[in-house]
Amino acid sequence: QKEVEQNSGPLSVPEGAIASLNCTYSDRGSQSFFWYRQYSGKSPELIMSIYSNGDKEDGRFTAQLNKASQYVSLLIRDSQPSDSATYLCAVNRGNQAGTALIFGKGTTLSVSS
Amino acid sequence: GAGVSQSPSNKVTEKGKDVELRCDPISGHTALYWYRQSLGQGLEFLIYFQGNSAPDKSGLPSDRFSAERTGGSVSTLTIQRTQQEDSAVYLCASSNRRGQTGELFFGEGSRLTVL
After folding, report:
1. Is residue A63 less than 8 Å (CB to CB) from chain B?
2. Nearest residue in A to B111, CA atom
3. pLDDT tens-digit profile of B6-38?
């Protein structure tokens, strides 16, 4: 079982729709969860971090964490063409603070105008 | 500089040669990571340095790969006897969240091509 799994997509949504991106992880001791966005040819940049069960909202983005199900998701409301990118889920390894951050392979999102 | 600096930005080498990739993290950041990204793929974890602790080398794909971090700052990733499958973008990232896995700031990467 891979440490962090994502559907590679592509996920295609029309402009203005909600895009839902999902991620599962294998290590029950993981404590820190992140969503990064990577435009083609660029380096990843942080969108959201979440550490506790439940929802965390930041503008058009909502991260959802369910540790019991080992599941993290990212919702993008009112999707824009500029949101078209690869979204990477990242999870820290182990149940200790300050451990390596492991990335999934990413989900490619395409927002059509 | 203000961000993570990596050099060289591009490196073309012949199979069997050794290469060194350099990363200069953001000043004061205690954590430093190396990742590898092949075309169209996700980020493959290679190695993680945190302060003075022993590095987590669990992601290094073979003993041809090694990395060091001198003085808690600059890091060098060395690939010996390069193979064509080593061709990828090597990304370095640093973080300042002491004791926790925090936000990573990435460099622009070093693109390695092995002919």
Report:
1. no
2. A41
3. 999 999 999 999 999 999 999 989 899 999 999
